[in-house]
Amino acid sequence: MKEFFAMGGYAFYVWTSFGLTFMVMAIIALGTRLQRRRVVAAVTRRAQTESKPDAREPFRE
């Protein structure tokens, strides 16, 4: 097991690469989730404002 984690002398490079890759993927996933929330909120706000009758427009039957 010790030999596996030592990676034949390349452990620092290998584990740093794994760590950075995981960190970048987590940042991308978090950014995507935050962007989705902003877009959904913007679409919801727009749908709500467009569904309200406009006060400047006269009432028509």
Q: How many separate domains make up the residues?
A: 1
* Sequence stretches where pLDDT stays below 50 over 5 or more residues: none
Radius of gyration from CA coordinates: 26 Å
**N- and C-termini, Cα separation:** 80 Å
Determine the number of helices (DSSP H or I, runs of at least 4 residues).
2
Order of helices and strands: HH
Strand content: under 5%
Helix/strand/pairing class, anyone? Answer: mainly alpha
- DSSP E strands, number: 0
Largest sheet: none
Outline: rod-shaped
Mean pLDDT: 87
- Give helix % range: over 70%
Walkthrough of the structure:
This protein has 61 residues and is mainly α. It has one domain (2-50). The protein has two helices and no strands. The N and C termini lie far apart (80 Å). The mean pLDDT is 87.
What tags apply to this protein structure?
61 residues; rod-shaped
Summarize the structure.
This protein has helices at residues 2-6, 11-51. The protein is mainly alpha-helical and 61 residues long.
Helix and strand layout, with pairings?
Blueprint: H1 2-6, H2 11-51
